[in-house]
Amino acid sequence: MEFLKTLTLGLRRGGVTDRSGLAAAIGSGAAYLAQGSGFSYIRARSGTMGPRLMQDEGFGAGMERCKWEGFAAAAGDLILLAESELRPLVRTGAAVWLALYCEVLAAQPMPPHRRDWDDRIAAFERRLTAHLAADPAGIEAISQHSAEVILQFAPVDDTIRAMDREMVTNNVKFRFIDHFDGLRQRTDWPALAADISAAEGAAG
Predict the structure, then answer these.
(1) Helices 19-46 & 189-203, crossing angle to 10 degrees?
(2) What angle do CA 64, 104, 146 make, to 5 degrees?
(3) How many CB atoms lie within 10 A of CB 60?
(4) How far, CA to CA in Å, does 118 sit from each of 34, 115, 146, 161, 183?
(5) What is this structure's pTM?
(6) Rounded CA separation 182/136 (Å)
(7) Which class for 77: exposed (0-12), middle (13-18), buried (19 or more C-beta within 10 A)?
(8) 33 vs 20, 25, 27, 37, 195, CA distance in Å?
(9) Using one digit for the tens of pLDDT, what is the confidence trace for 153-188?
C-alpha cells in the first residue's frame, strides 16, 4: 500500500497552476479515491471479519487488484472532470489528455497482476474521444465508470456484488463529488488553461 502513502502525501495541499501540478493532483486523487472506496466497501460488507480477511493471501491479492484497477479508472475519470472544468477556458485535442493519463499511470510501478496498461489506455482513449465530442457530463455520470470498475474487482461473490451495486455506486460518487470540489477550489483554472495551451502549442 506504499503507493497510497506516497501519492496522498500532501493531498489537498497547495494550489494547482500547471500541467505538472495537475498530473500530481490526478495521481494522488486517484489513489485516494480508489483505495478509500474499495476498503470502505469491504469494511462495510465484512464488519468485524475485515481484519482477518485482509490477512488471507488470496483476499489480500484481490484487494490489491481492486486498488490498482480502481486507480486507473479514477485517474481517467478525474482527467475527464478536469477537462470539463477547463473547457470554457481552453479547448485542446485528445492528445493532451491521453498523454496526461499515460503519465499518471507511468509514475507508478506496474502492479504484479499486470504486464502493461495498454487495455486501460485504449479504453480511456475511446471514452475521451466520446467525451470531447459531447457536452461535458456531470461528476456523477463520469464517476460511474470508477464505481463499476471497483465493484467489478472487489473480492466478493457475484451474488453479493449484484446486491451491493447501488451502495458502492453511491459511495464512489459521493467521494468523487467531495474530492473534486476540493480540487476545484485549490486550482487556478485560468493559469492551468494557459499552461496547457502553451504546452500544446509547443508540442504542435
Answers:
(1) 120
(2) 55
(3) 12
(4) 20, 9, 18, 27, 28
(5) 0.88
(6) 19
(7) buried
(8) 20, 12, 10, 6, 26
(9) 988 878 887 888 898 899 999 999 999 999 999 999
